[in-house]
Write a structure and sequence with these properties.
The chain has 745 residues and is α/β, with parallel strands linked by helices. The chain is built from 22 helices and 26 strands. The chain starts with a helix and ends with a strand. The mean pLDDT is 96. It binds alpha-D-glucopyranose.
Length: 745
């Protein structure tokens, strides 16, 4: 009997241990592979000369057309150049790679990097647009297609995703990110890293990603690009770090250090962010590349007296690779001689770069396949995905008396405005290797959508910027002759992106006057907005029947917008960024503090303006649908939970309209009283759901320490006892409200 019991015990122990053993067994090959890479790295580093080591710490720029520069051949042959940016196209990358693999002493493959921000050749909506889909799966899919095309073209490394939280619409680079919220930004960071890298970026359709710009570049004062940032450590940890932590947890292989001065220590020479946080706290083991000449710019910042100083400051702080400026190569040997740099710092930087090259599989598979370049790039499947994702990114801001959707069998439609037939602008900024001639304009999309009998006319009306109204008469005539008008206005793509901040947020040029002239005809019209940032479109919001935010929707923009305008797709996008009423309100964001005198229209002595309402024009999370949704029956699983506890929050959502549609159910919390003041609302969950007409569904969320905690007085992440409010609704200002207590234990 005893033996039987003993055998049963041993068997149950074995069964208990089995899953862990299976996991351990699965993890074993990965650990072996990593250990093998480390062995190979160390063996290689031991053989490298100082010049070859410094060569790995250098990335140089190719030519805008994708060619490498003539001098790169010899540098690669001598092992003095480890990486390039902008060099692309299999013929070119393979030519340079053969020099490295056939003619150099150590045969270390070249790493080809490129800004594949929202597509390589098939261009998807700009990141702010993609984020407006609130659909992580769609965003991941877009990144995976971008990776497939980039790797097919010989590119191994994208300088994306851009993870800068931004709250000031004046900043041009707001278009490149995921908007103002750390939680939404973190969800999109994970999605983009997974899309670019997959689970193994040595695959022929993946690239290694780059979390940029590390860190707080989006906090530039006055929204002026490259300007100073002064951000407390608490704000860094609560607002600006989270998307980067999410990217790191998702396995991002590289980081890019930012241009900005961060509380007096520029981000490209900041030991706190580059080493203490990134390496010490987060255990990141990839490499950090500087931004474009941001090492050299330490001189202009006034941190470095000269190039040698700059190299010493950046390398010792934790920037492993210098982009374009050459201070590591020019001063490394001397700094070592003077003891200002240690060989260990150089070797560690080299190891980190080699680690990523090994993980990319470049030593085994250094060359790209021309057949893939032909088959993958701009494939019909990729175009179809771009159209679908673009349609999901559109945000319906206004739709009075069902002005939209339009009828595709109308007698005549006038398409008016300077952005209605622009192939260049729909691609947005940072449009990779996108070809303008590939792009479908709004006019082309409408013509393809409507019936052959429908007459479609076009009048530009005016330019995006400039003072001329010479085209107004033609536009008004076209409007008068049509059943309804589709007006396409906004910004040129070049008015957002890098080095493109604006001090005003109005529609540029005479576009508002064009809208007013069309409005004065009394004809029905809708406004299609194409822009890279929130705009102060107060008059349009007040007076136009319908308004659709399309950002810059990419190669398939025209088809995607037509799909929504004519009702083949019911828009479900939501704003990832607050629209102000006036530029003077900036920075304006939903997760603000309450202050001791919160805005109160009935109290003069409260925090507001004399000349502009304190509320936004359109709030974070806002977006309409062609159907209607109703939220009811908010339920909390308990009135009180312990600090380590979890709370289930659920709500019923019903589609009360006559057509299927998507709603983004958003969950916000507010910690009513804490040792550090907390924002009036914080997004802690969202789900984009599709409901058929009449369908109702209960949507659930879970809140736990990860959601309820914050950085306390000691900058320790903790949940504090006390009262919490919870809000569940269609945006950051509406919805159902509940409350619960967190208990002391
Ligand atoms: C630019 C940008 C950065 C980009 C890099 C390489 O200046 O700041 O986002 O990845 O240079 O093009």
């Amino acid at each position: 009997m005893k033996l039987a019991r003993l055998l049963c015990l041993l068997l149950s122990l074995a069964l208990l241990a089995a899953p862990r053993m299976v996991v351990a067994q699965r993890a074993q090959p990965a650990r072996n592979a990593q250990a093998d890479i480390e062995r190979r790295i160390n063996a290689l580093v031991a053989r490298m000369t100082l010049a070859e080591k410094l060569g790995q710490l250098q990335i140089l720029d190719g030519e805008a057309n994708g060619n490498f520069r003539p001098e790169h051949r010899d540098m690669v042959r001598k092992g003095l150049l480890g990486s390039t940016l902008n060099v692309r196209g299999v013929a070119r990358t393979n030519e340079l790679q053969h020099i490295a693999m056939d003619e150099s002493r150590l045969k270390i493959p070249v790493l080809f990097g490129f800004d594949v921000i929202h597509g390589y050749r098939t261009i998807f909506p700009v990141p702010l647009g993609e984020t407006s889909s609130w659909d992580a799966a769609a965003v991941e899919r877009a990144a995976s297609i971008a990776a497939d095309e980039a790797r097919a073209a010989g590119v191994h490394w994208t300088f994306a995703p851009m993870l800068d939280i931004a709250r000031d619409a004046r900043w041009g680079r707001i278009v490149e990110g995921a908007g103002e919220d750390p939680y939404l930004g973190s969800v999109m960071a994970r999605a983009r890293v997974r899309g670019f890298q997959g689970t193994d970026y040595s695959a022929p359709d993946r690239v290694v990603a780059c979390a940029k710009h590390w860190v707080a570049y989006g906090a530039v004062e006055a929204g002026r690009d490259y300007n100073t940032t002064n951000v407390s450590e608490r704000a860094l940890r609560e607002i600006y770090f989270p998307p980067f932590k999410a990217a790191t947890d998702a396995g991002v292989g590289t980081y890019m250090s930012a241009f900005n001065d961060l509380d007096g220590v520029p981000a490209s020479a900041n030991p706190f962010t580059l080493t203490r946080v990134l390496r010490g706290e987060w255990k990141f083991d990839g490499f950090v590349v500087s931004d474009y000449t941001s090492v050299e710019e330490l001189i202009k910042h006034g941190l470095a007296a000269d190039g040698a100083d700059a190299a010493q400051a950046a390398l010792n702080a934790g920037v492993d690779m210098e982009m374009v400026s050459r201070n590591y190569n020019q001063h490394g040997a001397q700094l070592l001689k003077e003891g200002k740099l240690s060989p260990a710092v150089i070797d560690e930087a080299v190891r980190r770069i080699l680690r990523i090259k090994f993980r990319l599989g470049l030593f085994e598979h250094p060359y790209a396949d021309e057949a893939r370049e032909r088959s993958e790039i701009l494939s019909p499947q990729h175009r179809a995905a771009a159209r679908e994702i673009a349609a999901r990114s559109l945000v319906l801001l206004k739709n009075e008396r069902g002005a939209l959707p339009l009828s595709a069998s109308a007698r005549s439609i006038a398409v008016i405005g300077p952005l209605a037939d622009s192939q260049e602008d729909v691609l947005g900024s940072w449009n990779g290797d996108g070809h303008i001639e590939d792009a479908v304009t709004l006019l082309a999309g409408i013509k393809a959508k409507v019936s052959p009998k429908t007459k479609v006319t076009y009048a530009k009306g005016c330019d995006v910027s400039g003072d001329s109204t010479a085209g107004f008469d033609e536009a008004v005539r076209a409007a008068r002759a049509a059943d309804f008008i589709i007006l396409a206005v906004g910004e040129a793509a070049a008015m957002s992106g890098e080095a493109s901040s604006r001090a005003q947020l109005d529609l540029p040029g005479r576009q508002l006057d064009l809208i007013k002239a069309i409005h004065a005809t009394g004809k029905p019209y809708v406004v299609v907005l194409m822009n890279g940032r929130p705009l102060t479109i107060n008059w349009v919001a007040e007076n136009s029947p319908a308004l659709l935010e399309t950002w810059f929707a990419g190669t398939e923009a025209g088809n995607a917008i037509a799909d929504v305008l004519f009702g083949d797709v019911n828009p479900g996008g939501k704003l990832p960024i607050t629209f102000p009423r006036a530029v003077g309100q900036e920075p304006l964001y939903y997760n603000h503090k309450n202050t001791g005198r919160p805005p109160d229209p009935n109290n003069k002595y409260s925090s507001k303006y004399l000349d502009v309402p304190f509320t936004p024009l359109y709030p974070f999370g806002y977006g309409l649908s062609y159907t209607q949704f109703q939220f009811s029956n908010l339920q909390l699983s308990a009135p009180r939970i312990p600090v380590s506890g979890h709370l289930n929050v659920s709500v019923e959502v019903a589609n009360t309209g006559r057509r299927a549609g998507d709603e983004v159910v958003q969950l916000y919390i507010h910690d009513v009283a804490a040792s550090v003041t907390r924002p009036v609302r914080e997004l802690k969950g969202f789900q984009r759901i599709t409901l058929q007409p009449g369908e109702r569904r209960r949507v659930s969320f879970t809140l736990g320490p990860a959601e309820l905690g914050f950085y306390n007085r000691e900058l320790r992440f903790a949940v504090e006892p006390g009262a919490f409010q919870v809000f569940v609704g269609p945006n950051s200002v509406e919805g159902l409200e509940g409350s619960f207590e967190v208990g002391a234990r």
